[in-house]
Amino acid sequence: MQAGISEKEAYVAFNLAERIGFATVSELAAKYGSVAAAWEAYPNKTSRAGGAVDVRAELAKAEKWGVEIVTPADAAYPPQLATAPGRPLALYVKGDVAALSKPAIAIVGTRRATPYGLDQAAKFAAGLAANGWSIVSGLALGIDAEAHKGALAAKGTTVGILGGALDEFFPKENRDLAREIAASGGAVVSEFPFGRKPDQQSFPQRNHVVAALAKGIIAVEAPVKSGTLITTGFAADLGRVVMAVPGRVDSRSSAGCLGLIRDGARLVRSVRDVEEEMGELFPRSMRGQTAAKDGPSAKPGAAAPEPLFSVEESMVMRHVDAEGIRMDSLVEKTGLPAAKVNSVCMALRVKGRLRFFPGNRVALPRQD
């Protein structure tokens, strides 16, 4: 037993222990007078990984790897989580802890997204991020990743919630994206101690944090049986605003979203729709921005609009048609570095000027 343990350290200790959650810890704290006293009296100090719980070692790892552990004892613990049932005992944060307390919208969806779904995720995320919302998602492949990328393209804040420990990162394909999120003023977050691998239990827990951290949630694409519907179910139970983007009626990827709309979720087609649904939850500083972006053209005498494309965007657009072109061909034709071509194409996608396709191809939007 470790002497002189603080409230924060006690929360971390309970988080390391096996088979105990926030409700039980709260009951014990009420019985013994504090979380620290509850830990001192707690008989089973065995960690989930086996062996005795070692709080000092866990905190030392966090310091070594530049990770901040935030608990309900800390002022930095996000207020959206502070009142949610089943809230995490600890949050392991890589990046800016303050990002967790910004007004947030969650954008979630299937890993097997269509080009339509990927475009919608990026556009909604970019528009909302540009209006001041933080974009929360699960850092999974597909819709989640595109939501994070859309927010980054708009130079906004985004928070990724993992289904395993920070040092057991999954999926590996999004490791670079996670680094970019943490470096850009956002955060990558896990409620799991170091060494915890993702599993069937940890992903629903991750989904609960995604839902609880946001004021509203947007489902972009989801089959009928999917983790997305688990997340929106959590959101509904927590009283969050549940929204869904409509898709084709014959698309398996849109079946879950269409079901949500049938069952009462708000149908949203644009950032303006989201603003209307969120109502007073929309931060005051953001109001009016969406209307300005989506509204009619400027009146005569207004300042001249910015150029439609930057120099690099113009170089890329010169080679794109409705049939599509591979990214590596754009690198060759424009003479721009691959990283620059990728970022320019993402910016054009956010503007609605390009569509992305499997095989690393981009094309002009459909002329419907």
Describe this structure in words.
It is a single chain. This protein is α/β, with parallel strands linked by helices and 368 residues long. It folds into three domains: 1-53, no CATH class; 97-294, 3-Layer(aba) Sandwich (Rossmann fold), CATH 3.40.50; 311-363, Arc Repressor Mutant, subunit A (Orthogonal Bundle), CATH 1.10.10. The protein is 41% helix and 12% strand. It has helices at 7-16, 22-32, 35-41, 55-64, 79-82, 115-130, 143-153, 175-183, 202-213, 227-237, 255-262, 271-278, 289-294, 311-317, 327-334, 338-350; strands at residues 68-70, 91-95, 104-108, 134-137, 158-161, 187-190, 216-219, 241-244, 266-267, 325-326, 355-357, 361-363. A nine-stranded mixed beta sheet has the order 1-2-6-5-4-3-7-8-9, sandwiched between helices. Helix 9 (202-213) packs across helix 10. The chain is globular, with a radius of gyration of 22 Å. The protein starts with 6 loop residues before the first helix and ends in a 5-residue tail after the last strand. Mean pLDDT is 88; it is low at 282-306.
